[in-house]
Write a structure and sequence with these properties.
By secondary structure, the chain is of the alpha+beta class. The chain has a single domain (about 10-150), classed as Sufe protein. Chain: A (Alpha-Beta Complex), CATH 3.90.1010. Helices cover about 45% and strands about 15% of the residues. The protein has 4 helices and 3 strands. Strands 1-2-3 form a 3-stranded antiparallel sheet, with helices on one face. A hairpin with a 5-residue loop joins strand 2 (about 50-55) and strand 3. The chain is globular, with a radius of gyration of 15 Å. The structure holds zinc ion. Zinc ion binds near residues 48, 71, 72, 74 and 75.
Amino acid sequence: MSLEGQHPVNLNTLYQQVILDHYKKPRNKGAVENAVLKKHLHNPTCGDDLEVQVSLGPDGKIDDVKWNGRGCSISMASASMMSVALKGKTLEEAQRMMHSFYGMMKNEEGNYKPLGEIQALVGVSKFPVRIKCATLAWHCLEEGIKEHEGGGTNG
Ligand code: ZN
């Protein structure tokens, strides 16, 4: 993909490197023991297939995040970056981050610095068809949290 546009070339290059690095060396791929939140979603537009699993610590903070799946470089890199960013966050903080990411994908004005290296995906907002690739992991998180909060935990 191409990230040309409003940013200087050196920043584009940096962003592309971050995305490629996560795609080639995916972080936190696998399954979580004692996952309390688990969601599998498919992006039919591109064929991306992804499952995200999250476990919570006794303090209610995200203890571990793992993901598994296959798809394009954008969807895989996004899942990898998300898994790194979410560790140690509360679900509320995770949701705040999620909405911030959705805003960035919609090209809304905002301060996206707290997203850290996830900002590397900002260029995707110019390619509507690829936005679903970038947001797939976050949709897994969103749906997973909804089910977790809505559906009782069997004790
Ligand atoms: Zn894709």
